[in-house]
Amino acid sequence: MPLTFHPVDPLDEAFRARWNARVAEKELSLDPDFLQLLADADPGVTYHFVQATDAAGQVRALACCSVAEMRVMRFVPLRVLVLGGTVAAGKAYWFDAEALDFAGFLAGFEAYVKTAIRCDILVLKEFSPDSDVEPMRSMSDAGFITHMCYDRSRLALPAGGNMQVFLDSLPSKKRRNLRQVMEHGDAAGLEFEVHRNFDHLVDTAYALYLAVNARATEARTPALPHRLFAALGRLDAARMLTISQGERTVGFGLLLHQRAKLKCLVIGMDYEVSRELQLWYQVVARSIEYAANSGCTCVDLGSTNHSMKRKFGAQHEDIWIAVRHRSRWLTRLLAPLIRHTLASTYRPAGKGVVATSDVR
Question: Would you give the DSSP letter of residue 233?
């Protein structure tokens, strides 16, 4: 079925309704208001929203991507297009499976990008080998290099329950792990609070976040800008969980809470006391507690440290991305550099050397 891809205003009500129903419903960070905050917070990044229609004018596909400049080897500038952008998670696209398959969507999207968006590198995300067999095969056939970037950890909570109901649903060992963490925090005199308005906390939280980002080993990504933290205070779904000891804020978690879902975006810790107070575990445990007591049925615990999160009952999913230069022959030429860059940026714990597909 021939489709026409064209840009669309993300403020258009009909588009927002489709996007929310088809895309954002599955991933909180793909909410159009959150994506708009991301666009406003970084002037160096442009966001593009696209939809495709058939000959009768029926909308058959949607997509969102970001474009920004990066430098390879510190001096070669490249414009990189990322499906969904570098911050948001999940699949930032939808297509009508009754009208076309992923290969058809990809071909149409690539053709549109070639004529309408100036870029050198295309990055497609996120995909799982378990549930995206056809898309991963189609991307390989289209010359993309695929690479595992991290684990995503999710936790299912009992519907209509609270923290005690969730604890009762866990196997004894996981229930004991979670209770021990919470008891340790109480014994240390830690105070926990979830804020809907947190403008006054941004500077302190951002310093703690930078400390964690600088020590990251599994995903070595650039730090989010300070202005994004400040802007998130205007988002209805945003929350900040703080951990304090006396007058001192020693940890926090930046959360998105909408419908019956909670997503942990980033955390920050004071490393002077993090080990003593088990701060990483405290942030995770208290985020789960907030979600359970708020009636959530799903918690997205993020994309690193799954070996620690599974102690609380989280299930994991391997997440892959696909990368290609707009020119296939240049992709073959640059393949070693692309693989090296991906391997140095993403180091999933316990995965060893991650295989990537051959470029065709």
Answer: T
Confidence of residue 307 (pLDDT cuts 50, 70, 90): confident
Distance (Å, rounded) from C-alpha 338 to C-alpha 327? 14
Q: Which of 65-79, 234-248, 295-309 has the highest mean pLDDT?
A: 234-248
CA-closest candidate to residue 245, choices 289, 202, 277: 277
Cis peptide before 134 (omega within 30 of 0): no
pLDDT at 206: 97
DSSP, collapsed to helix, strand or coil, labels residue 225 as coil
| Short-list 293, 336, 297, 359, CA closest to 139 | 359
DSSP bridge partners of 48: 65
At 360, is the pLDDT very low, low, confident or very high (cuts 50, 70, 90)? Answer: very low
Going by C-alpha positions, the residue among 292, 289, 290, 319 that lies closest to residue 304 is: 319
Confidence at residue 200, expressed as pLDDT on a 0 to 100 scale? 94
Supply 339's token pair: 């693989």
Separation of first and last alpha carbons in the chain: 26
Q: Which token pair is 342?
A: 């991906």
